[in-house]
Design a protein that fits this description.
- The mean pLDDT is 83.
- The protein is elongated and about 65 Å long.
- It is mostly helical and 97 residues long.
- It contains 4 helices and no strands.
- 82% of the residues lie in helices and 0% in strands.
């Protein structure tokens, strides 16, 4: 079992060496990867902000539209906060209704 683990480590190390050799051969690829890693932070915070906004509007729509006594048609779409968030995301943002 130990020899199998050593072989797996050696294989992983050889893959890393190939990747390092590839990055040295094509520095543009390394620049692209660094740029993508830098952009991931701003994309993450944008998605967090979008989730917070959809949550707030999900609460608002649940309070305004989701009352089944006033509007029985609003119950499947705005019955709970999570279903209203789903409705706002899919029907409002992505338009895949």
């Amino acid at each position: 079992n130990a020899s199998i683990l050593r072989m797996a480590r050696l294989l992983r190390l050889s893959r890393m060496a190939r990747m390092a050799r590839l990055f040295r051969a094509m520095p543009e690829l390394l620049i692209l990867i660094k740029g993508m890693l830098q952009a991931m932070r701003s994309v993450f915070f944008t998605l967090c902000l979008e989730a917070i906004i959809i949550y707030i509007f999900g609460i608002a729509f649940r309070q305004l539209v989701g009352n089944a006594a006033l509007d029985p048609d609003g119950e499947p779409y705005f019955g709970t906060i999570f279903s209203s968030m789903h409705t706002l995301l899919i029907d409002g943002t992505l338009m895949d209704g």
